[in-house]
Amino acid sequence: MRLYAGIQPFWAADESLEDKLKRLQIREFSKDLLAMDLQELRQHFGFVTTGGIRMNLYIRNILWQLYRQVQAGHPPPFLSEGANIRSIWYHIKAKTSQHRATQGDHYGMVSTQLKLLVVEGLAAYRDFNLADDDKAYRKLAAPDGNPHIILIGEKRAYFPRFVEFAETYGVTVQMTQGKPSLLTVDTLVAELDALGIDLKQEFVVVTFVDFDPDGHHIPAVFAAHLKIAGIRQLKEFKVYKVRTRWFDMARPVELDKETINKVRYRLKARVVKKDSTKVWGRNTGGVDGKGSYKYGISADSFLEILPDLVSRAVTPELRVPPEDIARVRAFQKLSASLEAMILEKVLHP
Predict the structure, then answer these.
(1) Taking CA atoms, which of 31, 55, 169, 285 is between 20 and 30 Å from 310?
(2) pTM score, two decimals?
(3) Which residues contact 55 (CB under 8 A, 6 or more apart)?
(4) Strand residue runs (E) in the chain
(5) How confident is the model at residue 196 (pLDDT cuts 50, 70, 90)?
(6) Residue 11 pLDDT more than 50?
(7) Ramachandran quadrant class, 240 (left: phi over 0; alpha: psi -120 to 50; beta: rest)
(8) What is the pLDDT of residue 23?
(9) Is the Cβ–Cβ distance between 29 and 69 less than 8 Å?
(10) CB of 123 within 8 A of CB of 17?
């Protein structure tokens, strides 16, 4: 079972690996599942009455077998070189296309079954050497900074600003480009763990997203994914009528009424009709603070005051002050410059 810093999935602390595999109908096959003939596939994964193949179960076991190969140190070449979910599917498809009973486009099923292994704590996306498209929009905090604070932004265009905040306050930043994927969050947590950062400590999530139902959903999903990936302790905030496991910076209370009326936008009719939108308005107060659920405000409307918002949100949560971080970084830069100078003199006396 995959563990980060010795942490088991919170929902399966008392379930052994054997029991989990049995529940998920995953078996340890000595033979390569992709080398089995149709008769063998029907024996292990076939429907009793129709002779068809239970593809979800077949693919689940193929992925587990691939994971076992990775753990044993001999992964297929395509995984060693770096992969994505589609390349895993192509690897499987090369064999499944040979039998009529297993033919078809099962890419979505591969994605779903791989996610199941991650959610169940059996594997991590990183184990499969999968490329994370959001990695380029992430900056990890150094262990000697404030790695317990994660600052997330909805739009990639904000990333250069967020890098400055990361360097100033020593926090981790991640752009989500809408709703964050479990792959992104799982990879983020794996990278924090690789740096030796204690995943059992309390983490603080600070967000800069649109003030609307979709924007509100982003940190909710992010927090849920963090829990799946191994970060269970998140600080709760009471900035709305209900507590949240994150702190929203882009809130109407930060703008005057005239500005709100100028920048607010009407939500689409299909969004307004949703019960969840009404709940969002009731819980957050909406743009008017009275429960309105027909309007939203873009995070862009808060950009001018973003540095102040970050300062007020992050400063109370810091364990290492910015001046200490700046001093350490200055020393590191000086050391790097001296090493480069010495190397230059050694190579070119």
Answers:
(1) 285
(2) 0.83
(3) 45, 102, 104, 106, 109
(4) 138-139, 149-153, 172-175, 204-208, 247-248, 265-266, 295-296
(5) very high
(6) no
(7) beta
(8) 93
(9) no
(10) no
Contact between 8 and 40 (Cβ < 8 Å)? no
Residues 76/33, Cβ–Cβ less than 8 Å: no
Q: Mean pLDDT, to the nearest integer, of 29-53? A: 91
Closest by CA to 183, choosing from 130, 116, 108, is: 130
Q: What is the pLDDT of residues 215-254, one digit of tens each?
A: 999 999 999 999 988 899 999 999 999 999 999 999 999 9
For residue 200 the two structure tokens come to 């059992």
What proportion of the chain, given as a percentage, has pLDDT over 70?
A: 92
Token pair in block for residue 21? 């595999």
Residue-wise pLDDT for 309-327, tens only, equals 999 999 999 999 999 887 8
Looking up tokens 């792959």 gives 183
The end-to-end CA distance of the chain, in Å, is 55
- Tokens coding 35: 């080398």
- Selection from 261, 223, 262 nearest residue 243 by Cα: 223
Tell me, what's the pLDDT at 6? 44
Instruction: Give, in degrees to the nearest 5, the angle at Cα 320 between 315 and 324.
Output: 110
For residue 53, the SS3 value is strand
- What dihedral angle (degrees, nearest 10) is formed by the CA atoms of 31, 35, 41, 43? -40
Please say whether the beta carbons of 128 and 187 come within 8 A: no
User: 48: buried, middle or exposed (CB in 10 Å: 19+, 13-18, 0-12)?
Assistant: exposed
| Mean pLDDT lowest among 3-7, 42-46, 342-346 | 3-7
Burial class (CB in 10 A: 0-12, 13-18, 19+), 244: buried
User: Residue 230 is encoded by which pair of tokens?
Assistant: 């191994």
**Residue linked to tokens 């140190």:** 73
CB 187, CB 135: distance < 8 Å? yes
Which amino acid, 256?
D
> In the structure, what pLDDT confidence band is assigned to residue 5 with cuts at 50, 70 and 90?
very low
Output the six-digit token pair for 313. 């949100």
Angle at CA of residue 224, ends 268 and 227, nearest 5°: 170
